[in-house]
Amino acid sequence: MPGRADGRTILIMSTEYRALLPGSLLAEPDPDAGGVARRTPRDWVVDVLVFVLAVGVALAMAAIGYEEGVDPGRNTLDLLLGLLSCGALWLRRRWPVGVALALSAVGVYAATSIGAAVVGYFTVAVHRRFAVAAAVGAIGFAGGFLFPLLRPEWDSSPLWVDLAWSAFATLLILAWGMFVRARRQLVISLRDRAHRAEAEQQLRVAQARQLERARIAREMHDVLAHRISLLSLHAGALEFRPDAPPDEVARAAGVIRESAHQALQELREVIGVLRDDPADEAPDRPQPTLADLPGLIDESRLAGMRVRLDRQVDDLAAVPAGVGRNAYRIVQEGLTNARKHAYGSTVDVTLSGAAGDGLSVEVRNPWPVGVPLGPEIPGAGTGIVGLTERATLVGGRLEHGRTPSGDFRLWAWLPWPA
């Protein structure tokens, strides 16, 4: 450190240094990051605090000089240089290395600048890499050899004692400053990693929603193609057989009306979600309906699951294809999740509702206890997101989570028009 002092000076310097430790400089902007940020209210509090402490050290050192009989003129000049050094601390955020070197030069003559020099060097140690901070500290330490030549009145102890104290203080400030720097960089790294993970999770959710929309659009394409082909078939029959019996004409007209109504229902579902997918070369297989649900249950049972189906809907085939398909997918996802996370437990599947009231689907299984018996089945963790999007798009709603009784419950309500 710049300058040379006796035991009382070192005690004052240590007190000043300890005042800086409780996070006072931890919130300063790092000049390495490019530019100097505008001072925040916390920065102003920190700057005022270190300035007042440095001025206090300067006044205390000047008082000691007067008590020790130092020449009043030289002591007054020393005090003026010390106060100027304290004022230079307001520039340390913008030019930490320059301010520290200037304070080292002033410290060759002014003992009152020791407090400001501690603050300036600590700032360099926090904001600059080790090589720069060590070089600045070495320059300040070298100034200690010149101090007794310019201010012999302060020479109250052997030179080697003062130099040893100065080296110890320099290394201590350097070590603490590098620790603060490393801690700050770690906090910034963890914060950036957390922000990046959050952004990636949001991106995955958005992609899952987009993929689910595209998949629903492909399913709607198959259904609409079927409905429109029926319309074309029956309309063509009426066109080529205008002399058909009235009952056949009425029957064909009824089929056309029903198919058109269902096609419009399906079209309302696909509006807003249809997306082009040129990468998909092969068409999807025929989409399931609620009438295929018993087959899904039997398939799960053959795979070793214990599934109980409580069917409160008399005719599964009476459920509209779009509603039944969504209910089928919800049950399928619920069984998949139970197989992944609660293997071996009993899964209860409940279907209830009627035309005009809506269709309720519930999949419930006990919350898993302990560790899995086998390796965990991998998954993207976006299945529930897709189901929520699916239910919302058709005007329904979906809930999931742990119940007060300790079960995991997946529940959805889907509109079932009368």
TrEMBL record:
Q: Name one GO molecular function term.
A: protein dimerization activity
Signal transduction histidine kinase subgroup 3 dimerisation and phosphoacceptor domain location: 212-277
Give the Enzyme Commission number: 2.7.13.3
- For this UniProt record, give its keywords in alphabetical order, as a comma-separated list: ATP-binding, Kinase, Membrane, Nucleotide-binding, Phosphoprotein, Transferase, Transmembrane, Transmembrane helix, Two-component regulatory system
User: Which domain of life does this protein belong to?
Assistant: Bacteria
Name the residues that span the membrane.
Answer: 44-64, 99-123, 130-151, 163-182
Q: Which Pfam family is one of those matched by this entry?
A: HisKA_3
Got a GO cellular component term for this one?
membrane
| Reactions this protein catalyses | ATP + protein L-histidine = ADP + protein N-phospho-L-histidine
What is the protein name for this chain? histidine kinase
Q: What is the lineage of its organism?
A: Bacteria, Bacillati, Actinomycetota, Actinomycetes, Micromonosporales
